[in-house]
């Protein structure tokens, strides 16, 4: 069957960026610009013209941007996504490409060739001028008012020139005329790319954020006392002072009594044991209630106010699972799996059992009711002002649910950030990001050698992954005390804690730590590591008990962390990941990488000693273009951690780093 | 908005092979099998099952094939495309993937873990057995007859075992039961991949063919006489004897008189000059007429018969352009571009003019009529039995036209082969192949150094290009006498002609030569090459005059060509491109590559001396797995060009090749 219009001669393909052939949006933030590339071509020798069409979901009319032709039929255009403060431009954008045969452009180039050859053959020029006059008249018929008049006049001039019978013709084509004709393209047979592609535009914090996690119940200033949301509010200025902008708390809901876990994950709890905050739900309520020991909704609102005053986002932990005491267990039995003996299926990984947790059944006949209730949890806290959610184990809930639920939340609050805590296989982690999660936990914790770090960050900081996946890297979490940290020797422990937080804060624009365990160098594991096996569980984990932390410990690395966060705020280079470049160093214990701001005006070169037990030295072999520097010449590097300035020349530089020094975070100052 | 069924928990993505996200079909031949891979995964720890669904366009019911799970959520299945002689299975096939959560499989694996741990915790096993019984009963409800009974019986046994209160349980799961349950999967919440993907299935010659091009007007056995189709028929046995299976002739239609070109492309023809066969159309007719000097339709039909008897396909040259004398010029003026002076626009590349040629206007208001007429040309010759078309400059005709036209022709004759003669930019060449062209001319002629050949064949013989693009490589064409061949010295000229045809015949399963110019080493250019510029036009080109060829010339390399074609027929390895592997050689003038049959039973290793003027020696560093050989051990290599057999050991082998010897074409014989 013939197409409706067979004269659409242009093909548009390989449009980038796009995720799964346009099935999912790419991710950007407000004020960003994206380079769109595509292969655009037609048959024959006719010239092609193309434009980018784009709009925010609230706009009916397309905005346009021009394409530049690159070699080999590739084209590029820049799409600008609003201004940084234009919050009504958050959310869904779409774009497509329109391209057409540009007969006038073909003609001007042919005429130039004719004029260049007129010494040998000038007889065709008058006829060529008449053809051009027809093109210009056609443009005039698409124009209006003054433009139309100008175009008609130009056509008349072309014809007069054709009649003049000269022996030598100067070119009658001026830039102004070319621009005027281009303003009124003939789109009768233009091709529009299908499908339209989509972009999700978040606020800045989606791509640049520094997270601090703490257990509210350990936040009391009074030893032995259950911390409250008021205590958390009191701690906020200090956390903001350390430079963090997201404060994340494990679930704050009532905790189940049935099968409650005791300290160190013991199967039976004693009276007064506080249980795990992830065993959600009790007589006092479920996911929309607050554990009475933590306080009231008034306390919550007050904490939100203090947070806002300190430019901090409060991140709630959404863990969709229920303790046996959760109201849903009795109100909605069909949301759970029932066993042949009539009991409800608890979480298990045979032969391990987690009887304090009931998973939800996403194959429930009442899946619609379940989805609505889960969405309702987000809506409830969103209505109370929460704009950041850390989602617990999203990979154990149905993927189509997340795609729907996140879209629903964002409809009301497009400034919401969702962090996916999925430590699972790559495809599943990426599917969650494609389906809507703003940020994602990563394998960073287990990428420790130079080769591992280079491979992993190369994968996640480049297309296609970076089109949809935003890493948020954590040296530790309440679930993960990596074996690296389980070191008795204080100096060595301090070195590794310093190293990992420097890596996190300079490799990834989003990072976080679980504190005060981190800054206080907590390295004691529930089961000490052996050569054969290692436990990543903390000893006396806050997951099961209240902890008291001595934040005045002189060994605390809080000052380093504050310094890193300050450096991140001052340097645009560290606020994005797309210009991460690894440099060659002649030592596998030294890792060197640079990041640059989009305009290359800010460049940070970080060199890290990966060995916490000894000095490492080596020669940097810098890729100068990645630093925005010429191959030959001198420049200054300023260590932002120490203030030291070094004068370097060309691509080779010698570095020596002790475990105590750990790293250089250099700002590059090109020679004036 | 919620999906219609929210319980479809499986994601299927990255399905390969697919062309432009499924917009175009992949290409295969009858009897082939294709490996389909995809990422298939769901949430959580539930096991996944998947099957491939596929069918020929004539079939309503899907056939199924099983998937194998690979690491990291990747899956693979093999799709078999009919039997080699099942011609009713030519044409369009489609496939998709269906995947679902396999609760029974999850359960069997969990049970195995429970049984393994029963020494510590056996109390859950009876309940687990009852859950399994429910799964088996559910399968029974989807089954019928004996299978249903067997399944119900198994469920009953599970329950009896659950009641038995043993202290130790043996596994009740047998392979037969697993297979029986798998036969009746629960597809209630299965995911089907969209869109369905398509495969175009051609006959074998689409992928393995040897083309010989000749000008019929030079085919007369009588000196000075205009050759005829009867003369061509007489030559067919000899051409078949050389091992060719496609005989391709430039256009056989009436040739225009207006602006006819004389010998060596002179602008004015003298009386008796025969003109260019590509200036199509005269008083005698256009694209569906035969030049009277060549004969009648009876002669044509007789030639077709002789060709068929010799297992040769006749390939016609379809050049959609008109001489000023073509009937369409007066019958359908709207199919051409008219200039302001009322004349029709001839072909030109300012300031060059080709006044003997009128291009067609694909932006004609009567584009539908034009498309129908062009299609009518194919249909006309197809109805006369032609099944191979070489299409002249398809890249100067609208791309949507080709996609429609080729599909229409294939509807009637799915065994038709279209060769695209497009020497243009890569995206356009690839777009033509995607749009339906069976085979494509390539840049082979201009890929002469080792690095150029390795890069180019690596690109075109691997996915994604090889999914839709089938190279047909030509050392020469009537338009292209590469500067390499323009050598006075006979020995050197013979060496380069030998080299290029050996490369063509062993690198690509489709190749062709323009003869007898090729085998007779015609190297004279219209304008002799200088260091600065080179002409690729032949002196006394057959495009403009009749030539007489002395096929008894003792320097003819026809015996080599016959030998190459014989080797190609005897060795499956040379009949496909997908297992082409380049091997390392310690000399840039030696090129070594192997090809293997799909089952690796036939392996050909070719080593070519790229220097036509001197001996080259070097050490092969063979990648043994690519040869189907172990890294350590001895084997025989048999030079199929000379019959010599060498006994080799391990990966290193020394080779020395004179320009006269040119190449080894080794068959690998593994040690018994």
What does this structure look like?
Two copies of one chain form a homodimer. The first copy, chain A, has 672 residues and is an alpha+beta fold. Chain A has four domains: 10-102 and 189-201, Immunoglobulin-like (Sandwich), CATH 2.60.40; 104-182; 207-571, TIM Barrel; 575-670, Immunoglobulin-like (Sandwich). In chain A, 26% of the residues lie in helices and 23% in strands. Chain A has an eight-stranded antiparallel sheet with strand order 27-26-29-24-23-22-25-28. In chain A, strand 6 and strand 7 (74-80) form a beta hairpin. The termini of chain A are far apart. Chains A and B meet through strand 1, helix 1, helix 2, helix 8 and helix 9 of A and strand 1, helix 1, helix 2, helix 8 and helix 9 of B.
Question: Summary?
Answer:
Two copies of one chain form a homodimer. With 672 residues, chain A is α+β, with helices and mostly antiparallel strands.
Short descriptors:
TIM Barrel; eight-stranded antiparallel β-sheet; 23% strand; 26% helix; homodimer; Immunoglobulin-like; 672 residues; globular; 4 domains; alpha+beta
Question: Can you count the beta strands of chain A?
Answer: 29
| Major sheet summary line of chain A | 8 strands, antiparallel
Please compute the radius of gyration of chain A using only Cα atoms.
31 Å
Q: Can you list the strand order of the major beta sheet of chain A?
A: 27-26-29-24-23-22-25-28
Could you name the CATH homologous superfamily of the largest domain in chain A? Answer: Glycosidases
Helix share bin of chain A: 25-40%
User: What oligomeric state best describes the polypeptide chains here?
Assistant: homodimer
Outline type of chain A: globular
Total discrete domains of chain A: 4
How far do the termini of chain A sit from each other? Answer: 66 Å
SS-based class of chain A: alpha+beta
Instruction: Write down the overall mean pLDDT of chain A.
Output: 96
CATH fold-level label of the largest domain in chain A:
TIM Barrel
Largest interface: A-B, 59 and 58 residues
Unreliable segments of chain A (pLDDT under 50, ≥5 consecutive)? none
Beta-strand residue percentage of chain A: 15-25%
Architecture per CATH nomenclature, i.e. the level-2 architecture of the largest domain in chain A: Alpha-Beta Barrel
- Classified by CATH, the class of the largest domain in chain A is Alpha Beta
- The number of helices of chain A is 13
